[in-house]
Amino acid sequence: MRRARLTRRGALSAACLTLILGGCATQYGPVIQTGTQVPNTYGHVVNLDQGWSEQQQQWFWFVSQGSQLLPYDWYLALEQPTSAATSTSTITKPELFRSDPHMTKLGYLVEKPGPGNPVGLPVGFAKDTDRSGKTYVGFTCAACHTNQLDYKGTGIRIDGAPALADNFRLSDELVAALQATVSDDAKFDRFAHTVLGTGYSAASAQSLRKDVRAATDVLATRQRVNKPGHPYGFARLDAFGAILNQVLGADLDLPHNYLPSDAPVSYPFIWDTPQSDLVQWNGAAPNANGGTLARDVGETLGVYASVSVTHNDDPFKGYKSSADIVALGKIEKALESLWSPQWPAQILPPIDQAKAAQGQAIYQQQCASCHAVIDRTDPKRRITAVMVPVNRTETDPVMATNFVMREAETGRLQGAKVTDLLSPTFGSEATGVDVLTNVVVGAILGQKGETMAAGVTEYMQLKRARTFAPRSYKARPLDGIWATAPYLHNGSVPNLWELLQEPASRVKQFYVGSREFDPVKVGYDTRPFDGGYKFDTTLHGDSNAGHRWGTKLSDDQKWALIEYIKTL
Predict the structure, then answer these.
(1) 498: part of which helix (H) or strand (E)?
(2) Is the bond leading into 122 cis (omega within 30 degrees of zero)?
(3) Residue of 403, 485, 479 whose CA lies nearest to 235
(4) How many C-alpha atoms does 179 have within 13 Å on its Cβ side?
(5) In this structure, how many other beta carbons lie within 10 angstroms of the beta carbon of residue 91?
(6) Where on the phi/psi map is residue 531: left (φ > 0), alpha (ψ -120 to 50), or beta?
(7) What is the pLDDT of residues 240-251, one digit of tens each?
(8) List of E strands, 9-163
(9) Residue pLDDT, tens place only, 9-40
(10) Structure pTM?
(11) Can you tell me the distance from the alpha carbon of 308 to that of 329, in angstroms, rounded to the nearest whole number?
């Protein structure tokens, strides 16, 4: 009877899914032209034509997806951990955690206040309001997928590019700032007066301190269990490790399911994502309709969206979650019209067209079988990922291995269906992938119930339809690749020139964090600088081995190939 009701409601389910994933993308006004000043920025920062309007770009930067990092008023009032522990009467301007210099140091793009960002949050931070009216600050997609590279005094803002942010360090310092606040009376008194305003009293301050201490403990636990053997540095995060720890450990309340998040990867660029059949570095996410929504919800759970996981005999009941399904659908729709960036010859040195023509022939011979050349602006473009097994790429295997080998106890999910009525039930243990799928599907169904059943059914069909070696990495078109250094999935190669060297000859250590662009080798300045992160390719998960394609070319051929890649 249950399946019959779902069948009869299939048309409604599909219509609802189409509405969510195909809703308005908040696009107004003319498309941004290359060279136009980015509004509300500091210094000379220009945009590129990537198919978006200014309004659409600003919306993408600051729209909430349901991430709830910290109560909003706490974040605005929080001081840096090292701010002076002096009395309210003697301190005139505390060093706020959210200050522009501090966020810049952490690799985020700071902004002046503007219409869609009234308090001047950095790009990729948003105010989220839950169903009860409580407000939080959280991350948006733009926190990891918007970047800026600088060249001779001009900043070039690139939407969809991998950010240079150090997210793990931000979280570390956030915990330190909260711990310093609750442990120091003077700091907490300033914090409490700011947060409580006219509602301040000894009792309300005491209650606030209790709440801050509890939230701090949760965030500190998350940092502790995810802590790798060495820092990730700028431009990388072990997102899968963090998501799986959150779902398997925190959401199931099974601390022994935690494992170190020791497989950081570069934030992927996200132009052409809606047009791709598979996403993620290891191709783990099938990408159409229900699969698209599942991928987006999984990402949101990894950046502090909440979910309440319970044992449901009815797999379509779902879980309560803060993930904003409607906003995620609009974000995905907006990405459909995002184009990769083209090399701006009016800002960067012009491309040598004769040399690029030579490089094109080399590209067709050496690269095109894995990295197809596409029309970046074609709205009908479709991309079939080429999945290459690790034993063929010879690149660092840790990320791909961690994902497929992760297993955990199921706890309260034991005996529940993995996804739907036709799926098996959980035993006492399961793969991390199956538990994550259950939680993601549950978060979706918790908001839309049976009307989302068609999407869930399609998602499972997609997961079963495309099979490949599980320990594989994805090759994709290289349009806009010039703006996405460092290279390889783990960011272990600083520029295109180094990528074309034999692995044994590639640079073993280099600095990450500078935005200064090198248009010759195509990457960032890797020289040591104050605040930079020294990337060491000999460390666990950070190998720069593999990807030998193109390494046998002569130097002249390599330079020609690089010149052509700039045109993509």
Answers:
(1) helix 496-499
(2) no
(3) 485
(4) 12
(5) 16
(6) left
(7) 999 999 999 999
(8) 45-46, 70-71, 125-129, 135-139, 146-151, 154-159
(9) 444 344 445 445 555 544 578 999 999 999 99
(10) 0.92
(11) 22
